[in-house]
Automatic annotation (TrEMBL):
The gene is LOC111298451. SUPFAM superfamilies: Acyl-CoA N-acyltransferases (Nat). It comes from the Eukaryota. InterPro entries: Acyl_CoA_acyltransferase (IPR016181), GNAT_dom (IPR000182). It holds the Pfam family Acetyltransf_1. This is Uncharacterized protein LOC111298451 isoform X1. Residues 8-158 form the N-acetyltransferase domain. GO terms for molecular function: acyltransferase activity, transferring groups other than amino-acyl groups.
């Protein structure tokens, strides 16, 4: 991670909440195609109980990446949206730092499994998930759209 980068948990009552959400929604629109984007449902996602969002800022306080996660039951948690790291800030360890922090947050919820979906054509994301120990469970055809599939991946936590 570049020096000066900060990893922060988004708090609804923080003074910069609206500004941070605005920056994230902008990134979401830029990085993801419409059918994969949470831009329009972002606020709704954030209001869900048992969900959280971590974001990273650079030395100038600009948001450069984020990850969203949730733990709907005591059985499993999911990465709702990884991370998006701004193109200009990629390959500097930000994605890995964000994902590791989200894994840690989910781990403290005492769930057994952390799951996510990713388009297998997203080489960087697949590499990152595999590096942190996620395994492919199955391929779900037409998950994102008629011609875009998803790998369902999981990471099991130790029971001790
Ligand atoms: C996936 C993404 C978050 C990675 O962020 P990043 O900050 O560039 O990644 P990091 O520098 O932390 O890299 C960590 C690991 O990810 C993998 N990785 C990252 N970029 C990669 C690339 N271009 N090709 C292959 N593997 C890659 C590597 O395993 C890397 O470890 P290494 O540096 O030891 O080789 C970023 O590419 C991104 O935002 N992509 C667009 C959005 C996206 O696809 N999100 C996932 C949706 S499910």
């Amino acid at each position: 991670m570049e020096s000066g980068a900060l990893l922060v948990e988004l708090q609804r009552n923080s003074t910069n909440f609206a500004k941070v959400v605005e920056e994230i929604v902008k990134m979401e629109k830029k990085i993801f195609p419409k059918h994969e984007s949470l831009a329009r449902s972002f606020d709704e996602e954030l209001r869900k109980n048992n969900s959280g969002l971590l974001y990273m800022t650079d030395v100038h306080g600009e948001v450069v990446g984020y990850v969203m996660y949730s733990w709907p039951s005591s059985l499993s948690a999911s990465i709702t949206k990884l991370a998006a790291v701004k193109e200009s800030h990629r390959r500097q360890g930000h994605g890995e730092a964000l994902l590791k922090a989200a894994i840690q947050k989910c781990r403290t919820r005492n769930v057994h499994r952390l799951a996510l979906h990713v388009d297998p054509l997203r080489i960087a994301a697949m590499g990152l998930y595999q590096k942190l120990g996620f395994r492919v469970d199955s391929l779900i055809k037409s998950y994102y759209s008629a011609d875009r599939d998803a790998n369902r991946m999981y990471l099991d936590f130790d029971s001790n």
